Amino acid sequence: MAPLAVIDLHKRYGDREVVAGISFSLTKGECFGLLGPNGAGKTTTLRCCLGLTAPDGGSISMVGEPVPRRAREARIRVGVVPQFDNLDPDFSAAENLLVFGRYFGIDDATIRARIPRLLEFAGLGNKADAAIRTLSGGMKRRLTLARALINDPDLLLLDEPTTGLDPQARHLIWERLQGLLAEGKTILLTTHFMEEAERLCQRLAIMDEGRIISEGSPQALIAEHIPVSPSPLRPANLEDVFLKLTGHELRD
Amino acid sequence: MEAVAHFAPPSLSWRALAVWRRNFMVWRKLAIPSILGNLADPMIYMFGLGYGLGGLLPESLPAFGGGSYIAFLAAGTVCASTMNAASFESLYSAFARMHVQKSWEAIMNAPIALDDVVLGELLWSAAKATLSGVAILIVVALLGLTSSPLALWAIPAVFLTGLAFAAPGLIVTALAPSYDFFMYYFTLFITPMTLLSGVFFPLEQLPAGFQAAAQLLPLTHAVALVRPLLFGQIPDAPLLHIAVLATITVVCYWFALGLTRRRLLS
Predict the structure, then answer these.
(1) At A109, which helix (H) or strand (E)?
(2) CB-CB contact of A124 with A118 (8 Å)
(3) Nearest 5°: phi and psi at A38?
(4) Quick check: A174 contacting B, CB < 8 Å?
(5) Which residues are registered as beta bridge partners of A33?
(6) Which end of chain A has fewer surrounding CB within 10 Å, N or C?
């Protein structure tokens, strides 16, 4: 059973079709990347998978549950890092994890046992009592990742997890995500950092205007679309593929 | 098609209590100042009008139930204060959590539906309003303005009043573009209701048309329940008042949920 299977998904806002019939499926233990310029439909696809917006067509199965019908049950075994931080500013770092664990119906003793390990994982071992507003952007991202792990999920949905971070913070997140993959977690990642996709993803799909326009491993996509490097000074990379497929004009 | 789906019946779960508990945990950090802050404003009204204005009136007027004006005013103050506390929580505080802090969006990444979030907020606003109402009840009892054990029945009535004002508050929150929007609600709805529902003077003082209109206002029914209880009497037609407040709660919760689904889940 695929941790996430999306078949012919459609979503329309007014007469604009934001997701225009995409299908993809994740295999257990892999990191699958959804790449695309701003407005390609990546976040809408994730919202449909979580049951937070109703699709106009197609079917979704997440951790074996049909979505949106049983989205609540599906989310019990899923962790989410949203595009924009929404940590609870009324609580400390540790309290954020406690309160979030309660949303899953996990008993306090179990959550409290998990908190030190999760804070350690996020490099926030000495920040348990810190207020959210005192944390840097990178710390907040790491705490959000730790929060997504409070229910020990099988599947992680990460929406641009390193956007806005400096290279040090980004590399730390990548290292943590590689650790999670080594533990056997499955990850769906959206990003527009090509380096991130090349490092983390076994397979990826490039989206534009609501459609998947190419899909495969990073190496296969490069070999298929850029057989000869555009620059004699370096080998072809995923960024060349991305720009070739989605064009050079601005998207916002 | 989608509009219809947004107003589908609520699908509720016990997880709503986790949302309630989150708000309680925040409140607990500032509990004492919060209670005192909620108490100050209604107390000033009750003592100012009760003794200041009440002093000009005869000792016992039939219109005031045969007691002093401040004893008459006490029940009105309990209800108005409950209304204000429920409204503030379901407007400003809920809006902050929904729109500014994006707490609701975070919660919906857990196995909690928006239906549970809005229900949790409804129950929380009513609970906080109950604390506010009960704090005044305690002051009223300490002053000897009520002495009947029937007054204890005012506590569930106050909770129901809190629900009946939290639910419409959540409708306004679902529609609000910013905090400024809430001024309209207070100016057009809450303030007139405070003056037309028998808080400061008996409804019978109003022209007949206003008296009939007052029957549509939730605060009228709250006062009609709480005032006799504080006087040690069983209210007239209690089931009618309870039914009105409960219906307002259910209908407004459902409508607020539909509007919030439209706002957050499109």
Answers:
(1) helix A108-121
(2) no
(3) -55, 135
(4) no
(5) A189, A204
(6) C
pTM for the structure as a whole: 0.93
Q: In chain B, what are the domain boundaries?
A: 2-264
pLDDT band at A225 (very low <50, low <70, confident <90, very high): confident
Integer-rounded Cα Rg, in Å, for chain B is 19
CA distances from A31 to A194, A205, B97 (A): 14, 11, 33
Q: Whole-angstrom Cα distance, residue B257 to residue B190?
A: 21
∠ CA(A109), CA(A107), CA(A115), 5° rounding? 50
Chain B contacts to A (CB-CB under 8 A): 2, 5, 13, 15, 18-19, 21-22, 25-26, 29, 101-103, 105-113, 264-266
Task: Measure CB to CB from residue A88 to each of B106, B110, B112 and give the nearest one.
Answer: B106
Res B2 pLDDT > 70? no
Confidence class for position B65, pLDDT limits 50, 70, 90: confident
Nearest alpha-carbon partner for B57 in B225, B200, B235, B204 = B200
Segment A96-128, tens digit of pLDDT? 999 999 999 999 999 999 999 999 999 999 999
All structural domains of chain A: 1-77+155-252 (3.40.50.300), 85-152 (no CATH)
Inspect the interface and report whether the beta carbons of A103 and B266 lie closer than 8 Å: no
| Cα–Cα distances in angstroms (integers) from residue B143 to residues B56, B60, B100, B263, in the given order | 20, 17, 42, 47
ipTM over 0.90: yes
Give the residue from A49, A56, A99, A107 with the most B CB atoms within 10 Å of its CB, the best one to mutate. A99
Cβ A123 vs Cβ A136: under 8 Å: no
Other Cβ atoms closer than 10 A to A84: 11
Of B2, B13, B103, the CB nearest to A86: B103
Confidence label for A227 from pLDDT (cuts 50, 70 and 90):
confident
Percentage of chain B with pLDDT > 90? 86
What band does A252 get if pLDDT is binned at 50, 70 and 90?
low
Listed in sequence order, the residues at least 6 apart from B67 whose beta carbon sits closer than 8 Å to its beta carbon are B60, B231
* Contact list, A88 vs chain B (CB under 8 Å): 22, 101, 103, 106
Q: Is A80 in the B-facing interface, judged by CB distances under 8 Å?
A: yes
CA distance A120 to A116: 6
Among A13, A89, A104, beta carbon nearest to B111: A104
Q: What is the pLDDT of residues A123-181, one digit of tens each?
A: 999 999 999 999 999 999 999 999 999 999 999 999 999 988 888 889 999 999 999 99
Q: Which residues pair with A167 in a beta bridge?
A: none
